[in-house]
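Q: Could you predict the 3D structure of Anthranilate synthase component 1?
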Amino acid sequence: MTGTADMNLTPSLGEARALARSYDVVPLYAEFIGDLETPISAVLRFAEEDTVFLLESAEAAERFGRYSFLGFDPKRTLSYRNGVFTVVDSDGVREVPAADPFRGLAEIVGQKSVAPLPNLPAFVGGAVGFFSYDAVRYLEKLPAELAPPDDLGVPEALFAVTDTLVVFDHLRHKVLVVSLVDAAGLRDVEGEGFTAAYRRAADDIRRVAERLAAPLTRRAPGFGGGSFEVSSNFTKEGYEKAVERAKEYIRAGDAFQVVPSQRFSAEVGELDPLLLYRGLRTVNPSPYMTYLKMGDLALVGASPEPLVRVEGRRVMTRPVAGTRWRGGTVEEDAILAEELLADEKERAEHVMLVDLGRNDLGRVSEVGSVELAGFME
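A: Sure. Here are the predicted structure tokens for Anthranilate synthase component 1:
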């Protein structure tokens, strides 16, 4: 990345003031040539931070693969367990009771309008994290006595709220450092309060840009070798019984689909989670990839589909069901695609998940507004 001595900020202070009259938050950014920096090399520069996340696409030519996002040092973290959010920020640590973690997160983080700027993606900061699978119990009525034991100790929800972000624009081969100027609490955007907020954001951009431009001193993590055993939380017999029980539920009409998932675990010693992520993105490059480290917890993931995408007041889901492996040639891909479309079982699964997705959207959408934009593609 080029040096920061001649760093140009967009928008200017005057332009930012004008935007702040209409929006709560104004993104401030500096742009650099990024042909020598990669998302992984950038993560290495911030790997010692307590909280680091990387959201990227390994298929840069895809529609949703233009940007990668790197964040660290959040202004606030939120962890949810047993009906209580633990909030850590500059004011210290506090607990906020919340019977509904979804509403609770929205109330704590708040909702602010962000000024749209050319050359910036829709996401320029905010809450990054997860709701665990067990959070479904706050959406659906499920018998509490059948809840699985909490044997991992993972929070039901965990989020980092960031206002400074590194954005990789793979299309333009640029690196952008973005920091948010929050004008929501200011009485007058013409006064010194807004000027100070603008300068704080500029200082944050400069500090991050200097770290990106400095020589990389940390080596990429390696694996020391050796073997390890992988174990499942199911025995073979137990898994087969779970499958038979699921089939009984389906025959009885109590369920459309059941996923008797397995959790595999292994003792691997001091394995750096970034190494695990690098391995995952190598063997399974996907449009939606995640690396998240918050304290002692690390999460890595790769998915071919977005579960839900929200832009403005439009919500989209893209269920993927019915699959084949990729062929070695374009011709082989075409043959496999025809085979997939002719498979009755695969077609039935796809139709079922599309219907379920349509029903889920219908629960939160205006009546009659849900439409099927693509099918069996």
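Q: Anything worth pointing out?
A: Residues 221 and 275 are 6 Å apart (CA to CA).
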